[in-house]
Amino acid sequence: MPKLIVQKFGGSSVANVEKIKNVANRIASYKRKGYNLVVVVSALGDTTDELVELAASISSNPSARETDVLLSTGEQISVALLAMAIHELGFEAVSLTGWQVGIISDASHTNARIVDIKASKIRQELKKGNIVIVAGFQGMTADMDITTLGRGGSDLTAVALAKVLNADRCEIYTDVNGIYTTDPRIEPKAKKIDEITYDEMLEMASLGAQVMQARSIEVAKKFNVLIHVRSSFSDNPGTMIIKEAKRMEGVIVRGITINKNEAKITICSVPDQPGVAAKIFGKLATAGVNVDMIVQNVSHTRETDISFTVAKNGLAETRKEAASIARTIKAGDVLVDEDVARVSIVGVGMKSHHGVAAGMFDALAKKKINIEMISTSDISISCIIKKKSAEAAVKALHSKFGLDKK
Amino acid sequence: MPKLIVQKFGGSSVANVEKIKNVANRIASYKRKGYNLVVVVSALGDTTDELVELAASISSNPSARETDVLLSTGEQISVALLAMAIHELGFEAVSLTGWQVGIISDASHTNARIVDIKASKIRQELKKGNIVIVAGFQGMTADMDITTLGRGGSDLTAVALAKVLNADRCEIYTDVNGIYTTDPRIEPKAKKIDEITYDEMLEMASLGAQVMQARSIEVAKKFNVLIHVRSSFSDNPGTMIIKEAKRMEGVIVRGITINKNEAKITICSVPDQPGVAAKIFGKLATAGVNVDMIVQNVSHTRETDISFTVAKNGLAETRKEAASIARTIKAGDVLVDEDVARVSIVGVGMKSHHGVAAGMFDALAKKKINIEMISTSDISISCIIKKKSAEAAVKALHSKFGLDKK
C-alpha cells in the first residue's frame, strides 16, 4: 500500500484562482511521488466572513441551524474548484462534502463536535485512485442536519480523518513557515520551532497562537496523529507536532504567546465568606460566561477583591452579569479593564526546572513592567500586564529564555 | 388537514436581501391563512452564472460532477437566507437541500433526471409545523453524488414535490404576471392568458417562451399537477396551467412565441437516394447535435437540398460535423444562416379548425415576410423567417388571430 497523507489547506492558501492552482500543483507533486492523498480545504479567503455578513443583513440573531446551512457552502465551493484545478493537471480527483464523507457530529450548531466518521465513501474513492478533496469545517447530525465545527474546524476535520484513515501523517498548510517561538511581527528574532509537543502546542494555541485550532490538537494528541505544520508557499520543512521526545528535553521554554483579546474584571469588596467564589463563578457559568484566569488576594479584613479575565467578545453582557452578582452578594464596585494583555511562556521543560517563574518575573521587572495577575499550569506561566507593555514583555522574555539562539 | 401549497420562487424573486424579505412576507401571509407550505427557491439572482464563470477561470472544460457540487451551493445559500428571513417574521421554518429532501436522480450531471423523491424529512418537518424551504435545481444520485437538474430545474423540483406530497397546487412565482399571448416587450398589446393547457404550455416553452422549464410541464401534465404561474411582486392572479377544459375550446391560437437562438444549416446538392437522410441525421445524432426542424424539398433532379435548424450554442462544431458528413455522402456546400428567427403559433384549438396554417402564411405574406422553412405539430405551426422581420411577424400574427382582444 502506498503511504496516505492527509493535507489541509486553510482559506489563505486558496484565497483566489491563482492560489488554488498553486495548491493543485503541490498536491499533484505528491501524487507523482506515489502518495495517496486526502485533502481538506477551508473556504476561499474571507468567504466565511462574507456569508456571516450576509446572514446579518437578514437577521440580527440568525438561527444556528440555518447559519450552518449557509456557512457550509463556502467549503463546498472550494472543494469543487480545487478538484477542477487538479483535473487540469491530468490527475483524477473527486470532491466530498462533510455529509458525503459521513462526518457525524452532535447537534451543537456552529460549534458541533464530531462523534463519528464513516469514511466509506473516501475509502471507495481512494481505491479508485482518486485524490479525495474534502470540505473542512462541516459535518451532519445523525438526523441529517448540516453542522459546522467552529472556527478552525477544518484543522479538526483533517486530524480526525488522519486518525480514522490511519494516515501516515497530517500536513497542515498555512501562510507561515510553521510554529514560531513567538509572533515574528512582534519579535523579528523569533525562530521557527522544528519540533513541539502536543501539550506545548495545545497550550500555545489556547494562549493565543493562531496557527492551529486547539481542539484539533487535543484530538491529535489523543490519537497520536503526527502533524506537520508548514507553508503552502514553500517546500521548506515546518514544525512537527509530536509526543514528547528525549532530544527535546533540553528546552525549558518552547515559545511565548500574547493575547490582547481579554479584559480584566474586578469585583471589589467581596465579603470574605466560604462559598462566595463558588457563588460568583457558578452564576457566571450559568450565564454562559467563559472565565479564564481568576485571582483572589488573601484578605486581612472581612473583604477581598476578586479579579478574573474574560474574552472581550461579549464583554458588555459579562459586565452586566458581574454587576448583578455583586449586588446579590453585597459586594462593591465592578471594575473593567480592557487595556490589558496576557503574555505567556510555554514549555514542557518547565515541569523539571525550578526558577522558571522567577526568571519570567525578573525579566519583566527589569523592564519595569508591572504584573497585575499571574496564572500557572504544568507547562505554562501567564502574566496579565498593561497592553502597552506587551511587545516589550515578549521581547524581554524571548531573550531571557534564549529563544533568539538556535 | 390544512391545505398544502408548493410555492416556487425564481432567482429574480430573491435577487437581493430586500427581495428575500419580500418573499418571506408573502410566505408568512399564506401561513397566516392556515396553509401548510413547501417553498422551492432558486439561487440568488445571477449566482449560478457567477459560479459558472468561477469554474471557467479554473478550467475550460470543468468536470460535470464538480460543476454540480459548485452550482448547488447557490440554492443552498438561498434557502438558508430565506429561512432566516421567515424566522424574523416570527414563523418556524427549516431549509432542506436536495439530498436532505431525498431527491434521487440519475447520474447525468448538470442535467440529471429525477428518479425518486423520498420526502420523509419534508413530511417530518411539516408535521412539526415548519414551513419547509427546499433548495431547487438539485438532487443526489443513489451513490450520494450531488447532481443538478438543468436550467430551470427549480420548476421541476417544485412540480415533482407537489406531486409526491399530493399538494393542492403548485405556485410558480416569477417576475411577470403570468403567461402572455406573446412577449410584451415585442407586442405591447400582448394579454395575460388566464388558463392554458399543459400541451399548449409545453409547446410554448419548447418554442421559446421563457417562463417555465418544459420538462417540469411534462411532469405536471403526467401527474395532473395544478400550476399557477404568477408574479412575486403582486397579488393578482396569474395563469393557471390545467388539463383541457370545455370553456377553453373557443380559442384557436393561445399564444405566439419567438426564438432567435437557432441557426439554419443547408447541405446542398445531396444525392437523392434512399437512406441519405437517415445517414445525415444519424451521424448528427451520434455527434450529439440536437436537430430541430428539418426540411427537404421534393427534387426533380438527382440532387436535393436538405435544411435543418440547430441551437446556435455549439454551432461551430455542428458546422464542422455537417461539412464532414457532406464530404462522406458526396454532397455539395454547407451553408449556415444565423440570421433567422422561428415564429410559432400555439393552440389546442388548431386540432379542430381548418385553415389556421393558411391564415398564418397569409398574415406573413401581407407584411411581405418570406417564409424559409415550415414545421407543424398537432397544436403548433412554426415558420423560419429572416431575423429582422421577427417582431413584425409576431405583431401581424397577434392581430390576425385576435389575441389583442379579450
Automatic annotation (TrEMBL), chains A, B:
<dbReference type="InterPro" id="IPR045865">
    <property type="entry name" value="ACT-like_dom_sf"/>
</dbReference>
<dbReference type="Pfam" id="PF22468">
    <property type="entry name" value="ACT_9"/>
</dbReference>
<feature type="binding site">
    <location>
        <position position="48"/>
    </location>
    <ligand>
        <name>substrate</name>
    </ligand>
</feature>
<keyword id="KW-0067">ATP-binding</keyword>
<dbReference type="GO" id="GO:0005829">
    <property type="term" value="C:cytosol"/>
</dbReference>
<dbReference type="GO" id="GO:0009089">
    <property type="term" value="P:lysine biosynthetic process via diaminopimelate"/>
</dbReference>
<dbReference type="GO" id="GO:0009088">
    <property type="term" value="P:threonine biosynthetic process"/>
</dbReference>
<feature type="binding site">
    <location>
        <begin position="8"/>
        <end position="11"/>
    </location>
    <ligand>
        <name>ATP</name>
    </ligand>
</feature>
<keyword id="KW-0028">Amino-acid biosynthesis</keyword>
<keyword id="KW-0808">Transferase</keyword>
<dbReference type="InterPro" id="IPR002912">
    <property type="entry name" value="ACT_dom"/>
</dbReference>
<dbReference type="InterPro" id="IPR001048">
    <property type="entry name" value="Asp/Glu/Uridylate_kinase"/>
</dbReference>
<keyword id="KW-0418">Kinase</keyword>
<dbReference type="InterPro" id="IPR036393">
    <property type="entry name" value="AceGlu_kinase-like_sf"/>
</dbReference>
<dbReference type="InterPro" id="IPR018042">
    <property type="entry name" value="Aspartate_kinase_CS"/>
</dbReference>
<keyword id="KW-0547">Nucleotide-binding</keyword>
<dbReference type="Pfam" id="PF00696">
    <property type="entry name" value="AA_kinase"/>
</dbReference>
<dbReference type="InterPro" id="IPR041740">
    <property type="entry name" value="AKii-LysC-BS"/>
</dbReference>
<comment type="similarity">
    <text>Belongs to the aspartokinase family.</text>
</comment>
<dbReference type="InterPro" id="IPR054352">
    <property type="entry name" value="ACT_Aspartokinase"/>
</dbReference>
<feature type="binding site">
    <location>
        <position position="75"/>
    </location>
    <ligand>
        <name>substrate</name>
    </ligand>
</feature>
<protein>
    <recommendedName>
        <fullName>Aspartokinase</fullName>
        <ecNumber>2.7.2.4</ecNumber>
    </recommendedName>
</protein>
<dbReference type="Pfam" id="PF01842">
    <property type="entry name" value="ACT"/>
</dbReference>
<dbReference type="GO" id="GO:0009090">
    <property type="term" value="P:homoserine biosynthetic process"/>
</dbReference>
<feature type="binding site">
    <location>
        <begin position="174"/>
        <end position="175"/>
    </location>
    <ligand>
        <name>ATP</name>
    </ligand>
</feature>
<comment type="pathway">
    <text>Amino-acid biosynthesis; L-methionine biosynthesis via de novo pathway; L-homoserine from L-aspartate: step 1/3.</text>
</comment>
<dbReference type="GO" id="GO:0005524">
    <property type="term" value="F:ATP binding"/>
</dbReference>
<feature type="binding site">
    <location>
        <position position="185"/>
    </location>
    <ligand>
        <name>ATP</name>
    </ligand>
</feature>
<dbReference type="InterPro" id="IPR001341">
    <property type="entry name" value="Asp_kinase"/>
</dbReference>
<keyword id="KW-0457">Lysine biosynthesis</keyword>
<feature type="domain" description="ACT">
    <location>
        <begin position="265"/>
        <end position="348"/>
    </location>
</feature>
<comment type="pathway">
    <text>Amino-acid biosynthesis; L-threonine biosynthesis; L-threonine from L-aspartate: step 1/5.</text>
</comment>
<dbReference type="InterPro" id="IPR005260">
    <property type="entry name" value="Asp_kin_monofn"/>
</dbReference>
<dbReference type="GO" id="GO:0004072">
    <property type="term" value="F:aspartate kinase activity"/>
</dbReference>
<feature type="binding site">
    <location>
        <position position="180"/>
    </location>
    <ligand>
        <name>ATP</name>
    </ligand>
</feature>
